[in-house]
Amino acid sequence: MKFLLRLLVTAALVLLIANLLPGVHVASFATAVIVAIVLGLLNLFIKPILVILTLPVTFITLGLFLLVINAIIILLCTNIVGGFAVDSFWTALFFSIILSLLQSITYKILGDDK
């Protein structure tokens, strides 16, 4: 149940951000749900590998390089999910920052924070 709630919240936030942020395009709510699933899988399997490979850069930038990794994950998602598009790297970076902030706030309100 907790997984389903997180999935639907993330999908709704993806759709909301796509409507507010120019350069992010989501075809439908079903596409947003697929984006939420793919983002979850990429964060589970690919992100840890990227974090380990870029550990020295992450230390040098005091963790700010993790934002770049998040943007890369978003761009990977655009290549996997049809109907989801992000125009540029900078848009993906802003999208990932906004999504992370809104997820944190929403999960805190719902009492579903980690």
Task: Give an overview of the whole structure.
The mean pLDDT is 95. The radius of gyration is 14 Å and the shape is globular. It is mostly helical and 114 residues long. The protein has 6 helices and 2 strands. The protein has one domain (2-109). Helix 5 packs across helix 6. Strands 1-2 form a two-stranded antiparallel ribbon.
Give the neighbour order of strands across the main sheet: 1-2
Question: How widely separated are the two ends?
Answer: 15 Å
The count of DSSP E runs of length 2 or more, i.e. the number of strands, is: 2
| Number of alpha- plus pi-helical segments | 6
Q: How many structural domains in the coordinates?
A: 1
What is the typical, i.e. mean, pLDDT?
Answer: 95
How big is the Rg?
A: 14 Å
Poorly predicted tracts of residues: none
Beta fraction of the residues?
Answer: 5-15%
What's this entry about, in short?
The protein is mainly alpha-helical. It contains six helices and two strands, in the order H-E-H-H-H-H-E-H.
Any chance you could write out the topology, listing elements then pairs?
Blueprint (H helix, E strand, L loop, with lengths): L1 H19 L3 E3 L2 H17 L1 H7 L1 H6 L4 H16 L3 E3 L2 H22 L4
Antiparallel strand pairs: 1-2
